[in-house]
TrEMBL record:
Pfam families per UniProt: KxDL
Organism whose genome encodes this protein: Medioppia subpectinata
Ranges of residues in domain KxDL: 30-112
A cellular component term, taken from the record's GO annotations: BORC complex
Domain of life from the UniProt record: Eukaryota
Family classification: Belongs to the KXD1 family.
Protein name: KxDL domain-containing protein
PANTHER family xrefs: KXDL MOTIF-CONTAINING PROTEIN 1 (PTHR13511:SF0)
Biological processes per GO annotation: lysosome localization
Amino acid sequence: MRSTLYPIKGMASGVEECTESESVSTVMCRLVDSQHVDAVLDSQTNMLSMYEKSNEMLVNCNALAVHRFTHTSVAVQRYVQQLTDLRKDLDSVYHRIKFMKLKLSQQYSHAFKGVSLSITIDVSCGNVCNRLDEEEETADDIKNVKIRDE
């Protein structure tokens, strides 16, 4: 491809010849004000520095979140293990109480006759309460109960 030479006016030495790309480049440079280009470059530089600062802040925030997450996850695992152990302990206590209740009802069947004793836990006050399902104890019943030593 053959490049055509075009004259450029306004040069100090008069008219000079250049290729098409040089002539387009020169014309474009004359159309755009250098102050506007400098303002755009300054704006881009400012935005770049702001993005870099934002990126640094996000990296620090992410590192802090990872650090806190690792500590929190270790603590949660420890709490889960404690709750699991507590549940096992409570199940063991419940089964022991159930076994003791059964054993006592067999040993002292006359005291449990006609009465079904169940143990309930009052969640509001945290007290363990004995509840009689079929009949309530009266003052006379309590007076008539004799304690036997075996």
